[in-house]
Amino acid sequence: MIRKARIGDIKQMQALINGFARQDIMLARSLNELYENIRDFWVKADKGKVIGCAALHISWDNLAEIKSVAVAQKFHKKGIGKELIAACLDEALQLGIKKVFMLTYKPKYFKRFGFKKIAHSSLPHKIWAECIHCPKFPDCKETALLKIL
Ligand SMILES: CC(C)(COP(=O)(O)OP(=O)(O)OC[C@H]1O[C@@H](n2cnc3c(N)ncnc32)[C@H](O)[C@@H]1OP(=O)(O)O)[C@@H](O)C(=O)NCCC(=O)NCCS
């Protein structure tokens, strides 16, 4: 079952995300960021343990971002990533948001869900204002992808 995140999930979500961040394959998240944005997050739990998460973050009028998609290594290739993306896209539709973007090191994986490569510069300035706080700025190797719902 994919469900919305709860307060008690946060530390496990951080361990999952930051484990991959240490391998340099996604961005680390602080506890503060996770607590403040908990309502963005979907999780997949197994026997009370968080084994996957993904967030839908509203950016602007008619625009949201999918962030922090992570599935524990042991549970890869079972369709959990797909379920988490579907939950985020369904939520965007329910909110009346028609454009969803991502910044990712894995464009090939996400293109199968209908995301298409776009120029970073086509995203609103507001998003780039947030990038200044990223430790990787300005040498961002992430690909920008957009899906129109
Ligand atoms: C990217 C990531 C979230 C994908 O999660 P996942 O749960 O393994 O994703 P899925 O199961 O939906 O799909 C993965 C693969 O398994 C395949 N698959 C899905 N269900 C399957 C099943 N029942 N049997 C066999 N293969 C299956 C998919 O077709 C897909 O094939 P691929 O090898 O061509 O990619 C995961 O690899 C991850 O957490 N990576 C580290 C963090 C990361 O890079 N996050 C992206 C943010 S930039």
Describe this structure in words.
This protein is of the alpha+beta class and 149 residues long. The chain has a single domain (2-148), classed as Gcn5-related N-acetyltransferase (GNAT) (Aminopeptidase). Helix content is 31%, strand content 30%. It is built from five helices and seven strands, in the order E-H-H-E-E-E-H-E-H-E-H-E. It has helices at residues 10-22, 31-36, 80-94, 107-111, 125-131; strands spanning 2-4, 41-46, 49-60, 63-71, 99-104, 116-117, 143-148. Strands 1-2-3-4-5-7-6 form a seven-stranded mixed β-sheet. The longest helix is centred in the middle third of the chain and has 15 residues, at 80-94. It is globular and about 40 Å long. The mean pLDDT is 94. The structure holds coenzyme A.
Q: Give a short account of the largest sheet.
A: 7 strands, mixed
The order of strands across the largest sheet is 1-2-3-4-5-7-6
> Cα-atom Rg, whole angstroms?
14 Å
As for the CATH topology, it is: Aminopeptidase
Mean pLDDT comes to 94
- In which range does the helix fraction lie? 25-40%
**Low-pLDDT stretches:** none
CATH homolog superfamily = Gcn5-related N-acetyltransferase (GNAT)
- What is the CATH C level class, in words? Alpha Beta
Oligomeric state, counting identical vs distinct chains: single chain
* Strand content range: 25-35%
The count of strands amounts to 7
So, CATH architecture? Answer: 3-Layer(aba) Sandwich
Write the layout of secondary structure elements.
Blueprint: E1 2-4, H1 10-22, H2 31-36, E2 41-46, E3 49-60, E4 63-71, H3 80-94, E5 99-104, H4 107-111, E6 116-117, H5 125-131, E7 143-148
Parallel strand pairs: 4-5
Antiparallel strand pairs: 1-2, 2-3, 3-4, 5-7, 6-7
Bound molecules: coenzyme A.
